[in-house]
């Protein structure tokens, strides 16, 4: 029997949201954890994200919700605005960590990573930057891992938390497709308008746009460009091009255009999804987060799934005497929930491209209600 009670050592590949949360949860239950992160330092790409109720619930269990609320901007509503610039409806999201606390928090991605990094290290996790895994060899009661610096580790657990293009997934022999949904998403960091106290989503006749506060002083504008092929816009042209795409939106979006034009922090990325339809684990190796299930951003819940993954993985390994049994139980608990979110996000993306916004909004609401159920 591959009992791991006396040799609970793990290598996690990827120091993103999923990897750091898994490191914290595992270290708190007695695991010795090392993280291999390919980036050379702690700088984090991306402007902001939304920690929805399930994210906050999981972070609250880890004692980190208050730090995230303090570093970000608490909200409880999503306002949908129609193509005429009029409010179509407002979705009040479930407050999963108490009636007096926000339902969600917008937060700058570097702030979230700062909080998770600090806690992972406080719990004893060792984080190596500029390093990844190059080879994996499974045995009955362990996994041998070769790192890119030439060193090797013999551990009880390998966790691939290295994103949608996961190298660990490939090394474990797990296969999935990465699907482009015909959308490019733009994000621009801007000053927060005083009226932006929650998420606003603006329906357009071609594209969709929105605004997410991430602190008292900052927010990010997003635009989902529909029905386009993947392409590259020169960095020097991003701000002006995004401002031009926003000109067709009426109402409050007009106030956002000059903020976007002046922004020096604009990115444009393809909307892609991935979903492992078979096993998420092989031997003593498992993939979590975007490596197993990468949704489109329409539900703003990719971070929630990643954070839940780390917490549930540690729980199931603690409940079972063997790694194999713990990994099987983890996957059993996670597959249906994560598959439903990915599939819903794909459906919403398709409805957006057909300008069927009145059908997309109820799906967003229903998806959040479903995710409010315990993982």
Describe the structure.
It is a single chain. The chain is an alpha+beta fold and 375 residues long. It folds into two domains: 9-73 and 103-177 and 273-372, FAD/NAD(P)-binding domain (3-Layer(bba) Sandwich), CATH 3.50.50.60; 179-272, D-Amino Acid Oxidase, Chain A, domain 2 (2-Layer Sandwich). It is built from ten helices and 20 strands. Strand 9 and strand 10 form a beta hairpin. Helix 8 runs antiparallel to helix 9. It is globular. The protein starts with 8 loop residues before the first strand and ends with a helix. Mean pLDDT is 94; it is low at 1-6.
**What distance separates the N and C termini?**
29 Å
Uncertain residue ranges: 1-6
* Second CATH tier, the architecture of the largest domain: 3-Layer(bba) Sandwich
Strand order of the largest sheet: 6-5-14-15-16-13-17-20
Please write the CATH class name of the largest domain. Answer: Alpha Beta
Provide the number of structural domains. 2
- Please tell me how large the radius of gyration is: 21 Å
Mean pLDDT: 94
- State the helical fraction: 25-40%
Task: Describe the main β-sheet briefly.
Answer: 8 strands, mixed
What is the H/E order? Answer: EHEEHHEEEEHEEEEEHEEEEHHEEEEHHH
Strand share of the residues?
25-35%
CATH topology (fold) name of the largest domain:
FAD/NAD(P)-binding domain
Give the oligomer, counting copies of the same chain as homo and different chains as hetero: single chain
Total strands: 20
Q: Which structural class matches the secondary elements? A: alpha+beta
CATH superfamily of the largest domain: FAD/NAD(P)-binding domain
Shape: globular
